Amino acid sequence: MREFAFTITYDRGADHLMDVFIDHPGLYARTVSCQATTETMWRLDEVTGPREALAVYDDRLANLSRCSSLRGMGGCSIDWTYETIAERPTRRLIYSRQSEGDGCRSVPYLAAKHLEDGVLCRAEQHGHEYRWRLLAEDDVAVRSIYDELGANLRDGLALEFERVGDSTDWPDDLAERSNLPYKQREALELAVEYGYYDDPRRMSIQEIADEEGIPTSTLQYRLTRAEAWLARTFVSTDTGDPVVQAMATTADD
């Protein structure tokens, strides 16, 4: 099995929903599950980020559900419905059903068309990028997906194709960063950015907190929680659904 990546880069204004990710860099979405035929796609997405960004995201979803002029990557009309399955202050779990009209369709539909039953797919949305990753056996058929989508991509979008290689690094849900509450993930990212884990250590927790204008005790608490999550994730043998469980049991601070 080989992994392939299709990265679609959106200009601001090209897509109403992607504009929310562009305007709020802390917002991140990834598929928990995705099933597609040549006609219809069903998917479950987890979206994480600051409360204010998610509030904008919620409003945009509600507006899009009432819109009759939605267009896919290749310009097809879209019939789309959604439901918020779970909601936390810094997380959402979104179920959606989408059908695209005649013409060139988006990545999962093209995968179903060219690869039939022989493909797994998942997606991430962050900033300007919407990245689809496919796990498949047929290199030639995957290239056909790129050729068809690239020839019909609508204005304001750019496409990159990458043959990542063997499937050994196919993401493990237990280690997905979106399972970590946003504020704790942010604390962990700050610690890495400022060299807290470097040897020798470049900055202390107090110095990072002062630099970012965060109370030292707050940053320490969030970082400790994040480190505990990393440790539990590393040694976990839980066979349940990590996303739904995390949303039900993990604090957002």
Automatic annotation (TrEMBL):
InterPro entries: HTH_bacterioopsin, HVO_2928_N, RNA_pol_sigma_r3/r4-like, WH-like_DNA-bd_sf. It comes from the Archaea. Residues 183-230 form the HTH bat-type domain. Keywords: Transcription, Transcription regulation. Residues 3-170 form the HVO-2928 N-terminal domain. It holds the Pfam family HTH_10. This is HTH DNA binding domain-containing protein. It comes from Natronobacterium texcoconense.
